[in-house]
Amino acid sequence: MTNPLRLGVNIDHVATIRNARGGDHPDPVRAAEIVARVGGDGITAHLREDRRHIRDDDLRRIQEATDLPLNLEMAATEEMLEIALAHKPHAACIVPEKREERTTEGGLDAAGQHNTLAPIVWKLKDNGIRVSLFIEADERQLDAALKLGVPVVEFHTGEYAHAHLDGDGDKLARELKRISDMAALAAKNGIEPHAGHGLTYENVQPIAAIPQIAELNIGHYLVGEAVFVGLESAVRHMRELMDEAR
Ligand code: PXP
């Protein structure tokens, strides 16, 4: 049975750690296999223009290693379009991308970029790829998504996550209402709403409770938590190996 609220695990930051040493450990493919084994619903990976985490070859290896649907996050460029068409992931989420940003800091300006996005959306859809736009939860952007004919939007929860971190209750309530209202409006118009960015154990539940939201994509926090959940057994195992050697 498909879960009514899917969890897509973004494995980019496993690759960030790998790339810090330039070798092949830790391999994001192994992370994807674990996600599949424990009942994650999808793998999300962002192939950035500068390849700072996921690399081209990772996409192929992830697709070969698991049957989970791959959600490729991509900038709206010719280069990324070609890569998406070559790999044919289950879904492609078009995200804004600036080289200098540390992460995807805001939603895509779908309203201002209609003419750039339209041919890309069209080609992806024509190749059977489920297209999503990573937008702010606002009516103008949702309207633009409707005009572009995408089946899915992913609402950027960054401002919501910041409000939670800052302990700003008024802003948190405003952000939650904005996401919840836009999720309802998207669903009413036949667009499947997803959400993601900055979600943690502490802030996920109010977003997960929004009934129309069908998928959450979560990455940085999960990879960070995995360090703490896993470090104990990793240190113990190293200790055992060292002890055995004496
Ligand atoms: N969804 C999209 C479209 C993203 O760009 C990102 C960040 O790469 C995420 C979800 C996951 O955000 P986080 O890593 O903060 O959980």
From TrEMBL:
Main localization, broad class: cytoplasm
Enzyme Commission no: 2.6.99.2
Marked site positions, Transition state stabilizer: E154
Taxonomy, superkingdom: Bacteria
Any one GO CC term of the record: cytosol
Transferase as UniProt keyword: yes
Subunit relationships: Homooctamer; tetramer of dimers.
Protein name, per record: Pyridoxine 5'-phosphate synthase
Source organism of this protein record: Qipengyuania aquimaris
Gene: pdxJ
